[in-house]
Write the structure tokens for this entry.
Amino acid sequence: MTASDPPRKKTPAPDSRDARLKAALRANLGRRKAQARERAAGDEDEDSDTGQDEG
């Protein structure tokens, strides 16, 4: 690099940033939905495995 060359900043194009954010949001949503399904399935198992009689 010479004195006349300014340092280059790597700035990705806005479209690639939007695509990356969209993909990250979609992945996050998928993880949250999977976590909610696991919790719902866990709640059903806990209710049936308590071993206590109601009455």
